[in-house]
Design brief:
single chain; alpha+beta; Heat Shock Protein 90; Ribosomal Protein S5, domain 2; Rossmann fold; 4 domains; nine-stranded mixed β-sheet; six-stranded mixed β-sheet; 23 strands; cytoplasm; ATP binding
């Protein structure tokens, strides 16, 4: 403890004052409802101390008597034995009248009154005041059963003590303090022991006040040790920041170890003022898909951390890390205010636009195509959620998206797809599934490949949803290849090997054997090398059905259609067996099981499948 800090005594006698009715209600609100985390009290008191220090520094510009001492800082001193926690500063201090006015009446604030003076000051002389002294102060009663405030103003030899248990009244009495400033002394409650541990206090400072511009000093044992970084990197000119500085900050705020793929650092001025320092990672965290969908960009108000739950970016940009710091919100902004304030809505809109522009510009940079390909592999599945849920950015995100297709190994854009569509082709075709490798070998593609029609291969979970929401691109409708087989009749039929069997009797026989498990059995015009395939006429495709099953949703009762290839050797053989009077019911079940396996579906009766297969194999032996 420095010589400036006073030591509390037992409850003092002095002038008794009742809190205003508003303060009485406020105290109950603060202690029981306003803050969800008790540790917030330290952020509020540090903010007030920084405010008071800024105020004195500003006033010293015109009054040399108020010059700050060279070692001015904010000091935190836990005393376990005495159960006291003291937060001290060398700031502007308060007179007896100001103690009564600022701490005894709601909506009266030294900072707020001081703000009027700032209007006449030069911009470079205006300190960045953190909070509204008053409301945040009362958070001290969340962890203290009594709070003493000892304060002395520069140029005065008189100090005063404000003391209260937060239950409706406070006392004012003369005190002593060797130097100007303020001590806030908390008599810590029995259930708040953690706030007397130096390690816990340090972690709170690092979380909430690491970038406050004033040094914060924490007493640990018999030593005073620095507790905060003291420099808000995002407030520094970009010319003063090295790539190493950016990377170090990125790793600290994101808890990741890669290099940022993109760094966005800018200040917005005008109706809403804020500074942002955002990073797009170059690697995906290993647990990324299990994380929550909310954006965790940190919101700061005048360098003071407020929350990472402000959802400053939409969920489809939740991989972006960093900080947004604004002057236009109060420090004690509530969760409800965060959801409704127009200020934050404007910030969200501006920040989202800036990030999307950065991604779009990098997508257009042909010289760094490999870098964007890596980004898309890491975060494309997340960005595509925006195509589904964000009408404002849907077309823009679709334009920069990359997709695997039957055209080759390199991902393609929809613009590239449209540019090489066949002259008679009217739609963009896609196939959804869980596994990219299985999709590329799907029998659903055989008819399209045989006719030279490119099909997009979509294997991310969101791919089951966004095509229906997008509906079309460049006036070309998007169609699921598994359901658009009728379109193949518009194209020239390719030559195929083998003679087609007469399946006029086989089709109803297979339907009778399969009963109500299929809606129809029909000959296929799209199969080339496979014997069977499933079709869904108007119902959800296989991937959508699996997604619905995993989420517990009820499935439509639409039954699949089993298509058979009359030119396949197996189908020709079955037609011959049926003509010879043999029972083909076991083969019918196996054909349906094979079709399901090809689609990646789980078999409803795996044991039955194994039994039928082994029976046939044994018969052949």
């Amino acid at each position: 403890m420095t010589e400036e800090t006073s030591r509390p005594a037992a409850p003092v006698e002095g002038e008794q004052h009742e809190f205003s009715a508003e303060v009485g209600r406020l105290l109950d609100l603060v202690v029981h409802a306003l803050y969800s985390e008790r540790e917030i009290f330290l952020r509020e008191l540090v903010a007030n101390a920084a405010d008071a220090s800024d105020k004195r520094r500003f006033e010293a510009l015109t009054d040399a008597a108020k010059t700050l001492p060279p070692d001015a800082s904010i000091r935190i001193h836990p005393d376990k034995e005495a159960r006291l926690l003291t937060i001290s500063d060398s700031g502007a201090g308060m007179s007896k009248e100001e103690l009564a006015k600022n701490l005894g009446t709601i909506a009266r604030s030294g900072t707020r009154a001081f703000g009027e003076k700032l209007n006449a000051a030069k911009p470079e002389d205006r300190p960045s005041l953190i909070g509204q002294f008053g409301v945040g102060f009362y958070a001290a009663f969340m962890v203290a059963d009594r709070v003493d405030v000892v304060s002395r103003q520069p140029g005065s030899e008189e100090a005063w003590r404000w003391s209260s248990d937060g239950k409706g009244a406070y006392t004012l009495s003369p005190a002593t303090r060797e130097a100007p400033g303020t001590d806030i002394i908390l008599h810590v409650k029995a259930d708040a022991d953690e706030f007397l541990d130096a390690w816990r206090l340090r972690s709170i400072v690092r979380k909430w006040a690491d970038h406050v511009s004033w040094p914060i000093v924490l007493r640990e044992g018999e030593e005073d040790k620095p507790a905060n970084e003291g420099t808000a990197l995002w407030r520094k000119p970009k010319s003063d920041i090295s790539a190493e500085n950016y990377t170090e900050f990125y790793r600290r705020v994101s808890h990741q170890f890669d290099e940022p793929w993109a760094t966005l650092h800018w200040s917005a001025e005008g109706t809403t003022e804020f500074t942002a320092l955002l990073f797009i990672p170059s690697a995906r965290p290993f647990d990324f898909m299990e994380q929550s969908r909310e954006s965790k960009v940190h919101l700061h108000v005048r360098r003071m951390f407020i929350t990472d739950d402000a959802e400053l970016l939409p969920a489809w940009l939740r991989f972006v890390q960093g900080v947004v710091d604004t002057e236009d919100l109060p420090l004690n902004v509530s969760r409800e205010m965060l959801q409704s304030t127009p200020v934050l809505a404007r910030i969200r809109k501006a920040v989202t636009r800036r990030v999307v522009n950065e991604i779009r510009n990098r997508a257009r940079d042909a010289e760094n195509a490999a870098g964007f390909a890596t980004f898309w592999e890491n975060f494309g599945p997340i960005v595509k959620e925006g195509i589904w849920e964000d009408s404002e950015y849907r077309q823009e995100l679709t334009g920069l998206a990359r997709f695997h297709s039957t055209h080759g190994d390199d991902p393609v854009t929809l613009d590239e797809y449209v540019a090489r569509m066949k002259p008679e082709q009217e739609a963009i075709y896609y196939l959804t599934g869980d596994n990219p490798g299985a999709l590329a070998n799907s029998p659903q593609l055989e008819g399209y490949r045989a006719r030279g029609i490119e099909v997009l291969l979509l294997s991310d979970p969101v791919d089951g949803f966004w095509p229906d929401r997008l509906h079309s691109y460049q006036d070309k409708p998007l169609k699921a290849a598994a359901q658009a087989h009728a379109d193949l009749e518009k194209f020239e039929t390719p030559a195929q090997d083998g003679e087609a069997a007469d399946v006029s009797a086989l089709l109803p026989a297979l339907k009778d054997a399969l009963g109500e498990t299929v809606k129809e059995v029909r000959a296929s015009a799209r199969l080339v090398g496979s014997a069977v395939v499933l079709a869904n006429d108007g119902g959800p495709d296989p991937m959508m059905r699996r997604l619905m099953q995993r989420s517990g949703q009820s499935l439509p009762q639409d039954l699949p259609v089993l298509e058979i290839n009359p030119r396949h050797a197996l189908i020709r053989d079955l037609a011959g067996k049926l003509a010879a009077g043999q029972d083909i019911s076991v083969y019918a079940q196996l054909l349906l099981d094979v079709a399901r396996i090809q689609e990646g579906d789980a078999l409803p009766d795996a044991a039955g499948f194994a039994r039928r297969l082994t029976t046939l194999l044994a018969g052949q032996g």
